[in-house]
Amino acid sequence: MAELSTKQVERFRRDGHLVVDDVVSDVQVTRLRAAFEAQAAQWAAEIATTVEEYLSIVSQWMNVWERNTAFAEQLRDPRAAAIAAELLDCDRVRVFHDHLIAKPPHGGATIPWHRDLPNWPVAEARAVSCWLALDDAPIEAGALWFMPGAHTEPITRSIDFLSEQKAWGSREADAVAVPVRAGSTIFHHCLSWHTSPPNRSSRWRRAYITVYLDATCTFDPSRARWHPMTGRVTVAPGAVFNEDAFPVLGGRRPR
Length: 255
Ligand SMILES: O=C(O)CCC(=O)C(=O)O
Description:
Elements: H1 6-15, E1 17-20, H2 26-46, H3 51-57, E2 60-62, H4 69-75, H5 78-88, E3 92-103, E4 111-114, E5 127-133, E6 144-146, E7 176-178, E8 185-189, E9 194-196, E10 205-214, E11 248-251
Antiparallel strand pairs: 1-8, 2-3, 3-10, 3-11, 4-9, 5-8, 5-10, 6-7, 6-9
Bound molecules: 2-oxoglutaric acid.
C-alpha cells in the first residue's frame, strides 16, 4: 500500500515540498517533547550550567538519535521512511543525519534562504528532509517558508547563507509560508529553497528533522568537505555511504 496519493507525489514534484499531516501521534509527540526536555537538561548538566542558560545559547543539535532512545525510535519510523522513498521514487532510504532545531518563545534567529544539497558532501540530488513539528508551528512562531518550484533550478555554487542573502527580487511575492500542527511533517527536496523567521509567539517552536538519502547516493567530499558528517564517512569518494554512521532506515512498503 502506497503511503501517498499520486496527487501528493505530483504536488511534491511541482513545488519541492509537501505537507503530510498527522504522521506522528499525539502520544509520540508528547514523548518526543519530554525526551527533548530531559536531553537538554542532561546536556546542560554535562557543562555545569542550567537548562535555561543552555537553551538560551544552543538551539540546534545533530545526530540526536545516537544519544536518545526516543529519537532513535522516531528516526526508524517505517511510515516516514516509506514516504521519503515514495517521494524519491527509490527502494530504500538511509539517514544522512538528524537535526533538532528549537526556536524559543520570542526568540530564535532567522534561518536565511538556502538549499541543502550544495552544503552536503552528497553527489546526487536524491534526498528529502522530513521536518516533523514537535509544537504547532503557525506563521508567527517561525514556520518554514518555501519558494515553490525553485528546486528544479540548476545547482549553483553554495551561498554562505549566514552572511550572503539570497535576493529574489520580484519573485519574493511567490514565497509561501507553510504552517503545520504538531505531529505533522513537511517533506522537502534537497534543492528546495527555504527559510524561517524568528519565533514571535509565546510558545516553543521545535522541529525534529530527518534527512533521507536514496540508499544508493554516493559520497562527494568536493561539494562540502567542511560538513560535520564528512568526518563520519569511511568510504572513498564515489562510494555509497557506510552503514554504521548512515544506516538504511526502510523503504517502500510492499504493494
Ligand atoms: O527549522 C528551521 O527553521 C529550518 C529548517 C531547515 O532549514 C531544514 O530543514 O533544512
